[in-house]
Design brief:
Shape: globular
CATH topology: Rossmann fold
Radius of gyration: 20 Å
Number of strands: 15
Structural class: alpha/beta
Number of helices: 11
Strand content: 15-25%
Helix content: 25-40%
Order of helices and strands: EHEEHEHHEHEEHEEEHEEHEEHHEH
Number of domains: 1
Distance between the termini: 7 Å
Strand order of the largest sheet: 11-6-5-4-1-2-3-15
Largest sheet: 8 strands, mixed
CATH architecture: 3-Layer(aba) Sandwich
CATH class: Alpha Beta
């Protein structure tokens, strides 16, 4: 089926190239698809530390790392980039607690490299992938944008650093920005072209789906003694396509002269871990073994968004973010990937370092060897 994405459908931005850092990753690739549908040309910049070549289908690809300031500068000029969507980051809360220097180097210092290159080349617009982890242990639920930001893990701290850098670069250099603080991204492309695939996988829904597909012997639940309705953590799950649409709307907001701002992206509804597991069991038709484990350091008990301002400012309304649709799209995506793997059609090899590929040729190759069936 074709996703109903009328808010971002447009042909008025055909000459506008947007650099999408981390565009081979989960949220970045879904956003690249909607950018192309809206008439923009996404230029994907990715080092493939966690991204996938098969997820890059809608524009040119440059393999590179944001620590390479000279390369960023070259790409911005070569492609005459007008705006940037910045997704590239390390994003595991638990890992950030064990290895904070990785997070400050990759998320904070590399972001400064990117922003410096933008200032030096005259690129004035950026949409930044931020997170609700900047709030820490919220005292108000749902959490509004003006809630105090007191991160409880290095991941959230690194993202808050970038938000503050955006503010000061705006003051000093006229950079205009939107920081989108989203809550729990989930689900997969409703058309089945792309979806979520991490190695290692640490996210609840894809792990529960793997358990439902008998790919995991058991599913661990981290923390069953939270002060919540069933003892497990409560999260606000937002469908990845709704997130992608918000990024495109935020970009249009900036290009049309809108103010710099930070916005929450969520539904305002929370689901507990046990509720999510029960829904995956219902979808899969399979009960699976649950192993209860201790809380993970840095995990707040409840994270639910007050996202009303995104609706008011951008006209954003989530279309796919009910739990049933999230889990169904995730289920069909992972099941189709399993079928592709069992048929021996594995993803193509990663491109060579700094290779700037012909996306038309790559899309033909991907179509021949990778192409999960539609949802």
């Amino acid at each position: 089926m074709r996703a109903a994405l009328s808010k971002t459908d447009s042909s008025s931005h055909a000459a506008t190239r947007v650099l999408v850092t981390g565009g081979a990753g989960y949220i970045g690739s879904h956003t690249a698809k909607l950018l192309a549908r809206a008439g923009f040309e996404p230029v994907v910049f990715d080092n493939f530390a966690t991204g996938h070549p098969w997820a890059v289908k809608w524009g040119p690809l440059v393999r590179g790392d944001l620590q390479d300031a000279e390369l960023i500068h070259t790409v911005l000029i070569k492609y005459q980039v007008r705006a940037v969507m910045h997704f590239a980051a390390s994003a595991y809360v638990g890992e950030s607690m064990r290895c904070p220097r990785k997070y400050f180097r990759n998320n904070a210092l590399n972001s400064v490299n990117l922003l410096d290159a933008m200032v030096d080349t005259g690129v004035k617009h950026v949409v930044f992938s931020s997170t609700c982890a900047t709030y820490g242990m919220a005292t108000t639920v749902p959490i509004p944008e003006d809630h105090t930001q007191q991160p409880v893990n290095p991941y959230g701290e690194s993202k808050r650093f970038v938000e503050r850098t955006l503010y000061w670069y705006g003051e000093a250099y006229g950079l205009r920005w939107v920081a989108l603080r989203y809550f729990n991204a989930a689900g997969a492309d409703p058309e089945g072209e792309i979806g979520e695939e991490h190695d290692p996988e640490t996210h609840l829904i894809p792990m529960a789906v793997q358990a439902g597909l008998a790919e995991l012997p058991r599913l661990e639940i981290f923390g069953t003694d939270y002060p919540t309705r069933d003892g497990t953590a409560i999260r606000d799950f937002i469908h990845v396509t709704d997130l992608a649409e918000a990024h495109v709307l935020a970009l249009k907001h900036l290009l049309e002269g809108g103010e710099s701002t930070a916005l929450n992206l969520g539904t305002g509804r929370g689901h507990s871990v046990r509720e999510v597991v029960a829904e995956v069991e219902r979808t899969s038709g399979r009960r699976f073994v649950i192993q209860e484990a201790a809380r993970r350091p840095g995990d707040p008990p409840i994270l639910v968004a007050d996202a009303g301002r995104a609706g008011q400012l951008l006209g954003w309304r989530p279309q796919y973010s009910n739990l049933d649709t999230i889990i169904n799209t995730a289920w069909h995506w992972h099941k189709s990937r399993r079928n592709v793997a069992s048929a021996g059609r594995f993803p193509a090899a990663r491109p060579k370092k700094h290779e700037d590929q012909s996306w038309q040729a790559r899309q033909r190759k991907n179509t021949q060897h990778v192409g999960p069936s539609g949802v």
